[in-house]
Amino acid sequence: MGESTVCNVYAPVRHNGKTLGLVVRETNMATRESNGRYESESISAGKQLYEMIPRGQFPYRNPIMNQRHNARVADGFIVLTVEGIVRYASPNAISCFRRLGSVSTMQGEYLSEIGTKLLRENDPVLETLPLVLSGKAAVDSELDANKSAVSMRSLPLMDANGRVGAVVLCRDVTELRRREKELQTKDATISEIHHRVKNNLQAVSALLRLQARKTKSEEVKKELKEAQRRVQTIAMVHEGLSQTADEIVDYDKVISSLLKMAVDLATMRDQHIDIDFIGRFGMMPAQDATPLSLVLTELITNSVEHGFEGRKEGHITISVGRGGNNLNVVVEDDGTGLANEEHDGMARSSGSGLGTQIISTFVNNDFGGTVRWEPRRGGGTRVVLDMKLRAAQER
User: Fold this and answer.
1) Are residues 302 and 385 both part of a single domain?
2) CA 259, CA 156: separation in Å to the nearest integer?
3) Which DSSP string do the residues of 252-294 spell out, in sequence order?
4) Domain containing residue 373
5) If you average pLDDT over residues 45-68, what whole number do you get?
């Protein structure tokens, strides 16, 4: 065939003494072009990895690959001897170590010594770093120095008798780590803001409570207590947001505490009200969580104060159905129910009816939804909320 010869390499794949398949590589020798030392070293390393397949040595049985990226053509390429000495380092690999502050030409030196010289005293070091720099195990690690970061992955090369060297791939991830730190700072700032908002709202709630204690008017006292409850509701939402790394909150955890608070504030000392949940709200952004919390606490307060007025016990059920951005919530109580004239969609309302206005305003304006009040089968009231969340995200 002459210059157009195609080189075929066959690698049988065996398991338990049986041949399961055959891996074939074909190379057109006529069109193959030489690209110097880099190509010859990479082809040699690839051939060694290729020959490790039928012996069951590659892919590795217990690799520790923690990096989120896979190998790229532009990655730095280092070939180590069995002793860990650099036999070859590609220009990209040398460039990576230059950014870390190394002035070494690398070739002929121990990679572990090159890496150690870059570290300052008391610098934190990943436990996998020595394994990568020596090429003794299939692991990932990262080296930080000179305000730069380089991620590395070692690939041990083996023959039938054991390890004969290693390939180390490296990549400059300085910009990636810088962006991650910026995001962490931003997340911490947002959490701190929510924490301070919560503290300020709790201070307002405490002032309202003190004012309610001093006033002699029962009507004013009642209005102040309702205002305190609403402020406390918003504060608890911000408390949940302050404990997360973003603007998303696990609403199922938040709402259980909110409704318990609403029941405790609305019930008399000798009353016992149970609340059951059916379904899940899921993850929810702050701009949806706050108005929804106000709506639900108003409904629960309405049920306790008016549906169970004069009763020792009561039961409330909240059923949730969610599909993407669509949210359906049904709140039922076994209280006194609606009067006949209220069946046209008006709720039981207290005093000025501010609670009813809050429910209607948030559901209609914030969620573009509807509120339907109707008698519950077996007695009591049933409220159906159909809403579309503005920025809902399911996780």
Assistant:
1) yes
2) 58
3) HHHHHHHHHHHHHHHS-TT-EEEEEEES---EEEHHHHHHHHH
4) 249-395
5) 87
| 37/50 Cα distance (integer angstroms) | 20
Distance CA 273, CA 282 (A): 25
Average pLDDT, the chain: 84
Question: What is the distance between the terminal CA atoms of the chain, rounded to a whole angstrom?
Answer: 60
**pLDDT tens-digit series, residues 262-298:** 777 777 677 888 888 899 998 888 789 889 988 998 8
Number of domains in the chain: 4
Burial letters 295-331, b for 16+ CB under 10 A, else e:
bbbbbbbbbbbbbbeeeeebbbbbebebeeeebebbb
pLDDT score of 161 more than 60 = yes
Question: Which of 91-100, 346-355, 378-387 shows the lowest mean pLDDT across its residues?
Answer: 346-355
Using N-to-C axis directions, what is the helix angle for 218-242 and 354-361, rounded to 10°? Answer: 30
- 307: tokens are 């549906």
160: burial class by Cβ within 10 Å (0-12, 13-18, 19+)?
A: exposed
Whether residues 295 and 359 share a domain: the answer is yes
Distance, in Å, from the CA atom of 223 to the CA atom of 173, rounded to the nearest integer, reads 58
Please indicate, yes or no, whether residues 307 and 335 belong to a single structural domain of this protein. Answer: yes
Q: Is the pLDDT of residue 33 over 70?
A: no
